[in-house]
Amino acid sequence: SHSYVGPDYSVQKNTGKISLEQIDALSVKSFPICMRQLHKALRDNHHLRHGGRMQYGLFLKGIGLTLEQALEFWKKEFIRGKVDAEKFDKGYAYSIRHNYGKEGKRTDYTPYSCMKIIMSNPPSQGDYHGCPFRHSDAELLKQKLQSYKIPPSGVTQILELVKGMHYQLACQKYFELTHDVDDVGFSLNHPNQYFMESQKLLSGGREVKKELSNPGNTQQKTNSQESMNSNSAPTCSNTTADAELEGLEAYFTED
């Protein structure tokens, strides 16, 4: 009953809708906290280790970044750090093309669901991937929420949910507090769902034009209602896809 059966966000209905110049602003207003954390770490350090590149790269693909945009985005940031253009092209570009199904088995890899982020590949020292509600120290999480201007009462509510291991409910509460709504009206189980719902709300409740004919939205709503009672439990993704993704991860161990 906890399996993830919502949209996989691999079919790029939004392709090219997001420009690279918008990402900084979007990361503050429409990214879930896991992706906001990854974006800031990338901007600050001009690098992300493998787990972060996979989690964030597939999320960006899911919100509409084209392969060309993705290559430009990562390359521009990495060469601001310690990676020169040649090293990027040799060591990193292949894995980005692989994520978009242009290399190897040419599989269209799907963005990670909340369950995959919560349950697999926990971050270690120097990593920024994972779920901050699941993997962050409580005091560090508190400081992060305060820095995001979450009011004290909201921070307390989120920390209580985290204490009860209700990580997705904690993320829903974060959505409510950052969007100034009393009830999100959906059951959160995917970072890309968070982004879509945020954009829908910020644009006055209307879908983005390219999403109007997406049958996945209806399916998503139904799935949300069905999973409402078990929302604190993580949801899981397709086993075959996970196996393929693990195969892909084995290719790219360079940090």
Task: Write a structural description.
The protein is mainly α and 255 residues long. Among the domains are: 21-114, no CATH class; 130-203, no CATH class. Helices cover 56% and strands 0% of the residues. It contains 14 helices and no strands. It has helices at 23-29, 33-45, 50-63, 67-78, 85-91, 93-99, 114-119, 132-135, 138-147, 152-163, 167-179, 191-202, 216-227, 239-251. Helix 10 (152-163) runs antiparallel to helix 11. The protein is globular and about 50 Å long. It starts with 22 loop residues before the first helix and ends with a helix.
Number of strands: 0
Question: What gyration radius follows from the Cα positions, in whole Å?
Answer: 17 Å
- Low-pLDDT segments: 206-241, 246-253
Helix content: 55-70%
Describe the sheet with the most strands: none
Give the gist of this structure:
The protein has 255 residues and is mainly α. Helices cover 56% and strands 0% of the residues. The chain starts with 22 loop residues before the first helix and ends with a helix.
Structure keywords:
255 residues, mainly alpha, disordered C terminus, metal-binding, 4 iron, 4 sulfur cluster binding, DNA_primase_lsu_euk, DNA binding
What secondary-structure arrangement, pairings included, does this model have?
Blueprint: H1 23-29, H2 33-45, H3 50-63, H4 67-78, H5 85-91, H6 93-99, H7 114-119, H8 132-135, H9 138-147, H10 152-163, H11 167-179, H12 191-202, H13 216-227, H14 239-251
Helix pairs in contact: 9-10, 10-11
